[in-house]
Amino acid sequence: MLNDIKKNISINKLNQEFDVLSQKIEKQTLPNGFRQFILYTLSELFANVEEHSRGSKVSIFLKIKDNNFSLIVADNGIGFRESYLRKEIYPKDDFSAIQFALSGLSTKKLNERGFGLYTIRKFIQKLEGIMVAESGKASARIIKNKIEFTPVSSFKKGVKIILETPIKEVDFYKNIE
Q1: Which of 59, 53, 68 lies closest to 2, judged by CA?
Q2: One digit per residue, pLDDT tens: the chain, 177 residues?
Q3: CATH code reported for the domain at 6-167
Q4: What number of other Cβ atoms are within 10 A of residue 102's Cβ?
Q5: Are strands 57-65 and 5-10 parallel, antiparallel or unpaired?
Q6: Residue 47: phi, psi to the nearest 5?
Q7: Which of 36, 121, 122, 160 has an alpha carbon 20 to 30 Å from 133's alpha carbon atom?
Q8: Which residues of 133-163 are buried (b: 16+ CB within 10 A; e: fewer)?
């Protein structure tokens, strides 16, 4: 399987890094739909960082081993709440901002939906995995159909998304929204 990939990269090199990671993932023997899920997830998370974070760096950890997939993407940007506030959307706190992001509220235009994190969340639920979203002073852990919010002890700059799921077949196009 794929050896652990750990990288810290500049945001302006995300497209190049996506190409490198895509080539490595394409070489993996994976169940139907799972490769598309990984590539879609990386593409959406990288696009979110590039479009919304206003940060300079991204750290990536990716692992495919023993029928398990793990991915961590963390940026050093402004975080969910500040991103919403800059678009005159007013979450009352970091918990609300994470909830907005996971439910598909976009910061592009008020009449648009942001399906990236929402769709990733739906995939993780379908795959019976775990998703964690951290930003500011809040953390949300998604297991099955539950979201557990917990405060974090100190303010976290940027956004960190953690995904862990068993590797199994998934009907990618049926689950994409």
Answers
A1: 68
A2: 677 999 999 999 999 999 999 999 999 999 989 999 999 999 999 999 998 899 999 999 999 998 999 999 999 999 999 999 998 889 999 999 999 999 888 766 555 556 789 999 999 999 999 999 999 999 999 998 899 999 988 888 999 999 999 999 988 777 765
A3: 3.30.565.10
A4: 19
A5: antiparallel
A6: -65, -40
A7: 36
A8: bbbbbbbbebeeeebeeeeeeeebbbbbbbb
